[in-house]
Amino acid sequence: MSYIARTINLTKVYEGTEVVSGVNMNIKQGEIYGFLGPNGAGKTTLMKMLTNLVKPTAGEIELFGEKLNPDSYELLKRMGSIIEYPFFYDKLSAWENLDLHCEYMGFTSKQMIAKHMEMVGLKDAGKKPVKDFSLGMKQRLGLARALITTPELLILDEPINGLDPVGIKEMRDLFKRLSTEYRITMLISSHILGEVEQVADTIGIIREGRLVEEVSMESIRRSHTDYIEVQAADPKKAAYVVEHLLHLSNYKLFDEQTLRVYDSDITASDLNSKLVQHGVAVESISKRSHSLEEHFMGLMKGADDVA
Ligand SMILES: Nc1ncnc2c1ncn2[C@@H]1O[C@H](COP(=O)(O)OP(=O)(O)OP(=O)(O)O)[C@@H](O)[C@H]1O
Fold first, then answer.
1. Residue 62 belongs to what H/E stretch?
2. How confident is the model at residue 34 (pLDDT cuts 50, 70, 90)?
3. What secondary structure letter does DSSP report for 146?
4. Reported CATH class of domain 225-289
5. 41 Cβ inside 6 Å of ligand 1
6. Could you tell me the residue ranges of all domains in the chain?
């Protein structure tokens, strides 16, 4: 397996508190890695360490197979990033801002500016001063700037913040294109599952500085459970019928009204008729999936029941 970025026991302590704790993160070449966690979980701090903006307290970072040091300028040139809000010279136009960036980074091709302005949907906004840009436009311009030096790895901290639904869709499509057409590996943070779920190949979940899960979306989709949910006035009676008369053992009582049956040996309509036959007053019965949302929300909040 080829990893483009790895962290080994990465830790950051601020004022005596570990805000990133022993994180082992593995970002594979070519993938989109969705980095998910609630506000304050440590996402930005970890991304700042990956881009040498913050020095780790302990642990190591490997980029492109090499150890990241304070003077790893060549490694940093191979990545692009937007961390927190992108900063621009407000009075300068979008084009001038990108031009300055190219010079600063030692890239001279001006054609790249037009190409990337178009790519992020800002083709006609090049002459506009950045002070007249909306937050969404600044996010796009930040992305153009991060892309202009043709990075192999793109690190984007909450890139969808401030975008309207159309902008979110366009940004998602762009991420997919960057991944499939340009083979750029991406680390994208968010505190909202829906923002990354549709594009990510792998999801890493950080909570209180710890990486609590790192898993491929494929395996999550494969393993998330199907079940039949029964609402009944007396779910204990329903559970009795399920266990002792139908001989199904994989079920769980949830509250005063709800029973979930995880066995795949029975259909919802068969279960309904059997329960009714044995005198259970079924109020509703339906086939459901334990949604990804529930799975991830459970992990992000630290709930025990996240199966
Ligand atoms: N320079 C700093 N000095 C002290 N504490 C800091 C500093 N930077 C971040 N923190 C603290 O570290 C913790 C993690 O912050 P971080 O910004 O990395 O989280 P996050 O997951 O990116 O959250 P958000 O989505 O709100 O940006 C927070 O408790 C924050 O207050």
1. strand 58-63
2. very high
3. H
4. alpha beta
5. yes
6. 3-221, 225-289
d(CA 88, CA 94): 9
- Whether ligand 1 lies within 6 angstroms of the CB of 19 is answered as yes
- What is the CATH architecture of 3-221? 3-Layer(aba) Sandwich (3.40)
Q: What local confidence, expressed as pLDDT, does residue 302 receive?
A: 65
Smallest CA separation from ligand 1 atom 6, residue = 14
Q: Which of 17, 23, 39, 44 to mutate to test the pocket of ligand 1 (most atoms within 8 A of CB)?
A: 44
CA-closest residue to ligand 1 atom 7: 14
From edge to edge, which strands make up the β-sheet containing 210-216?
79-82, 153-156, 185-190, 32-36, 202-207, 210-216
Substitution site in 45, 49, 192 for ligand 1 pocket (most atoms within 8 Å of beta carbon): 45
The confidence score (pLDDT) of residue 5 equals: 97
* pLDDT band for position 303 (cuts 50, 70, 90): very low
Fold: same for 3-221 and 225-289: no
Q: What is the pLDDT of residue 212?
A: 93
Q: What is the pLDDT of residues 168-197, one digit of tens each?
A: 888 888 899 899 988 999 999 998 887 788
Average pLDDT of the chain to the nearest whole number: 88
How far is Cα 45 from Cα 37, in angstroms, rounded to an integer?
A: 12
